[in-house]
Amino acid sequence: MTKEKVLVIGASGQIGVELTLALRKIYGNANVVASDLREENELLKGSGPYVSLDVMNKEMLHVQVIRQNITQIYLLAAILSATGEKNPNLAWHLNMQGLLNVLDIAREEKLHKVYWPSSIAVFGPTSPRKDCPQRTIIEPSTVYGISKYAGEFWCNYFFERYGVDVRSIRYPGLISYKSAPGGGTTDYAIEIFHEALESGSYKCFLKEDTYLPMMYMPDAIRATIELMEAPAANLTVRTSYNVAALSFSPKEIGEAIRRHLPAFTIQYDPDYRQHIADSWPQSIDDSVARAEWGWKPEYDLTRMTAEMLDNLK
Ligand code: NAD
Ligand code: AKB
What we know:
313 residues; UDP-galactose 4-epimerase, domain 1; 42% helix
């Protein structure tokens, strides 16, 4: 069997840091090259190779892939929903061209596998609000969602036409304590923990009853690795898989935190992100992922809240 050599693009971001560390445990530190436009995250330092890399520079990316004998790419560089609405052109350009650069190089160099995450942001106001199915009406209303939807079909196209083994998950909002979130609508569910511990109160940019699909980072990392390790023959979805874990509102997560910190208070001051959140489903049906590669979440709101507070203390 050929030795795998993995390149993680966007490794200094919220998912990148934890995914890189998890991949290094599987493939060995030296065989997972972390890369990002910004400097190496503190948590990655000393744990394996790092290169400074812009995914938009296709030539440099191609050189790195050849020079480092890369066999798999995990592409995490993107502009997320809230930042995307402030700069739609930049979001479209990075989210699309970055993916096309990686898919082209994967085809040319016959890489073994590519991972690229999509998001629940592909869904829009006309998609079912509850238990949103794998295949349904998809009419996204944010530039981020449009880029994810187009990206899913580019992945499917490269799989069907060129046999590139590209796999994808539509992550819900991800909650983590190790590295900071990068400009999403679901970021409130991380900020709330920091503010609860630092100041005892939080001003939320979403309304109290805004339910959104969410997931704790250890579940997201495990989902990613399980999908990437699944036999190709089991996978019928080459756009992107729905996965689900939690669905809660700001009020509910506030109550979960108050069980640990009884004096914690929340005020609500919705901004432009409310409109984005209102366009997304409240919960997701992930029965296809469960059936095809055995997906099953482990964390509920109570367990996640306890771990988040413990680790942030
Ligand atoms: P993030 O913003 O925290 O990290 C992205 C990283 O990409 C950053 O470190 C950034 O410096 C880097 N980057 C930006 N432009 C680059 C470029 N031109 N070249 C190289 N690196 C560049 O994002 P994240 O939350 O870790 O998300 C990773 C992926 O997962 C994205 O595709 C995102 O859409 C998707 N996703 C995330 C969530 C979530 O809740 N975090 C949910 C759904 C989907
Ligand atoms: C965001 O809020 O933009 C992300 C996502 C759900 O894709 N967390």
